[in-house]
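Practice problem. Given the sequence and the SMILES for zinc ion, write out the predicted structure.
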Amino acid sequence: MQARSYQMALLLGKCPRCREGDIFTHPIRRISKFNVMNKSCPFCSAMLEPEPGFYQGAMYVGYGITIAVLILISLILYSLGNPSEWVYISVTIGVMIILAPLNYRYSRILYLYMFGGIKYNPHLSQPK
Ligand SMILES: [Zn+2]
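Answer key:
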């Protein structure tokens, strides 16, 4: 079994230490529980919340994602013929509501990978 890459583990929401265990308890299609996280990795038992209130900083990552999406939507709408400002506002709000669960998850995953202080251990992801 080949070890999962850093990028693929991040994209799939896997534990940064073993790259096998899920950070979130349910798949994102279970919209009522999209925000429920595992306290520790179900595969290697790494603490996925390093300290109380750790994920408060993830809102800055979420803000950055929101701004990036907003700029992207604006550029797409502008290239489609520069509609009125109400089209910009309504399309942006609609897209951000639809993407809110993704934004929530990836802001936490990115924050954990950047500031969680959890180092990858390739021996944990190998079959025993
Ligand atoms: Zn793990």
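Check your answer against the key. The chain has a mean pLDDT of 92.
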